[in-house]
Amino acid sequence: MLNGGGGHVLFGVTDDGDIVGQEGSDSTRQDIARELSQIEPQVVLDPEIVPVEGDRAVLVISVPGDRTGPYTYDGRSYVRQGPTTRQMEQETYEQRLVENRDPRRRWEACPASNIGVGDLDASEITRTINAATDRGRMWEPGTRDPEDLLRGLGLIRNGQVLNAAVVFFGEDRLFMPDYPQCLLRMARFRGTTKSEFEDNRQVRGNAFKLFQQAQRFLREHLPIASEVRPDEMEREDTPPLPAGGAPRGTGQCALPPRLRPPGRLHWHGYLR
User: What is the pLDDT along the chain (272 residues), one digit of tens a residue?
Assistant: First the structure.
């Protein structure tokens, strides 16, 4: 599916479509992770657990299509054709390798499927342009028309919105199943293991929304030590991270250097 149009892999559903479920134990997820680790280039596809009857569940792996690839499993590349899977022909494999060296064919530079300018958050586009011009990062474009702004940013090509535009400015409803990297999971754990949660949230949205939600999560959970000195008019606050460290770390998580879909984003915090 990675080498084709994408799709969904369901564990706990028979070939006839009957939902029977299976145990969603840690060992099951470890087995799946072990199999996924044999895919090259490395890809992160986290299974989602959908509870069914009793203690059984269906495990769903959403595989976005139109990825750059080609991808291999255990050293071999495969393609899906209807209900069957076959090994990719060597000529096709080599041709895709050559094509994908072209930066214009990177995932973020590819047209978004069935998405137009009207599916993007126009207010976020305007805020981004205003912030950039206020800080001297770009010249005043002389317009606030969303399509003109996107064209000026290089996020529209031949009249089509690119995947990068969706990641930056897409509305929330666009991100599943084709944009699983636009899911941010944030957790604060009790102690130094992942066995007990203090807080656990997940947010879907564009990169700016994920950035804002991650910062909010940090502000809610990171303690700030304060000291009031007799000879000072204001108290002195000491955050647990260096000045600017949290925003930079959040930005690096929510805005990867390349927008190729690497998988979901995770924040982990431990309560000591």
Answer: 777 777 788 888 888 888 888 876 777 778 888 888 888 877 777 778 888 887 788 888 888 765 667 888 888 888 877 778 888 888 888 877 776 666 666 778 888 988 999 999 999 999 999 999 999 998 999 999 999 999 999 999 989 999 999 999 999 888 877 787 788 888 888 877 777 888 888 888 999 999 899 888 888 887 777 788 887 777 777 766 655 555 555 554 544 434 444 444 455 555 44
The domains of the chain are located at 7-101, 109-174, 180-271
Q: Residue 225 to residues 163, 205, 221: CA-CA distances in angstroms?
A: 42, 32, 13
d(CA 253, CA 104): 24
- Contact partners, residue 246, CB within 8 Å, separation at least 6: 215, 218, 222, 239
3-state secondary structure of 253: helix
Helix, strand, or coil (residue 28): helix
* CA dihedral of residues 268, 251, 245, 187 (deg, nearest 10): -10
Fold of 7-101: 3.30.950
Phi-psi label, residue 66: left if phi above 0, alpha if psi -120 to 50, beta otherwise: left
Separation of alpha carbons 113 and 150, rounded Å: 17
